[in-house]
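go over whats below:
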Amino acid sequence: MRTHHLRVHPSADRLPREEQLAWRLAEIATDGAEVLPEVADMVVNRVIDNASVAVASLVRAPVAAARAQAVAHPFAPGATVFGLAAEQRVSPEWAAWANGVAVRELDYHDTFLAADYSHPGDNIPPVVAVAQHLAARRGLSGADVVRAITTGYEVQVDLVRAISLHKHKIDHVAHLGPSAAAALGTLLGLPTDQVFHAIGQALHTTTATRQSRKGEISTWKAYAPAFAGKVAVEAVDRAMRGQTSPTPIYEGEDGVVAWMLDGPDAAYDVVLPEPGEAKRAILDTYTKEHSAEYQSQALIDLARRLHRERPEVADPERVASVVLHTSHHTHVVIGSGANDPQKYDPTASRETLDHSIPYILAVALQDGGWHHVRSYAPERAARPDTVALWRTITTAEDPGWTRRYHSTDPAEKAFGGRLEITLTDGTRVVEEIAVADAHPLGARPFGREQYVTKFRMLADGVLDPAEVERFLDVAQRLPELSAEELGGLTVTAPTELLGSVTTPEGIF
């Protein structure tokens, strides 16, 4: 690995582009490094994971609306849209849009947390869309898709390790635009200068505020990463046509670092692979067993254990207080430290409840588990005993858990906390958990079997059994797929299922 020192430069410095971070990221995309077998295997897992959560969201309103927008842009050869027949193709940027929303809607796919937050699986929809569209023209294969996704994960994880966006209230998709552009550069075998300009354009157009994840969280939360993927496709198209980007986009005196991040005196050390070094970042990421914010995954696992072993902690008449001692991020993003009254509102949106650890703990303690639909149902959130227990739960920052959250040592890095429950009779129940059961270091780490099981579970009652088996066969052969077979990287739902949801008419 090599360290790139990032700081602000005045225009008078005339910083050579080869010394700019966007160029270094572009070099990752164009270095031609071989993909390790274990990395290729994990790429397959994440393609299956994305399809799982997309299937489960097909009839949700944001996904239906995005799909309707995509259908209004038919194109040939084009790309597929989750739910529709593989023969029905749309323009690739709109396929990336619709599929990105479907993947993100339930907030149920993979994650990487460090200096910032990320869902690196968001890189996959734009890569697959462009690959399907250009498969025949450029002779693309499943191996090319695997290499591209590997790049996307590497760039996003490297940025997330080094640069905090949330500290400045910038949404984390500002790291996704560049990573998706880099991934597309790898897919298409573009020269470094084209990828450089695509990365710059993608970053410039995806820097938005974190209000999308604050207070009453709207349906836009699912659209934000899809927008970044769509923008990346368009940025690469422009770069291929010779169009340039704001330069230097990170280091300029009016650039991202100087005015959106730590300011003119800022400095970051971004650790990147050496030229030709294998890209391994995907192996440091982790998926979700439960459909909830990642920082709640381990706490759901702890709550379901307490449900079995200490059922009294789920009874609001016996509970005086519940305090979760956890990391700064968990406390201020999904905990009471956010100071969002919506996190205690029984009428709040699903998106808001997904980002409320007090709500999640209350339901998991009472139900002994978590379900991607039932746990968010309005009648579940409004249940009086749940509301009563919910109101007893607060969070507090613990420096030890904050340190572990930011640790670069995989054996120490943790996203859990210590739960201190005080009962009305004075009894104290104190339990802690470091990582989720599904985490690579957890009690039941996810492997191929678990990813396939997750797909089957979420596809049950949604897809025909034959379609489930067809998709799993194609996805698990991804590294060997021919150009003709790339169109099979989608799922087709019964027409009557998609017809059960309608969307209001828009412009298109």
Remarks:
- The chain has a mean pLDDT of 96.
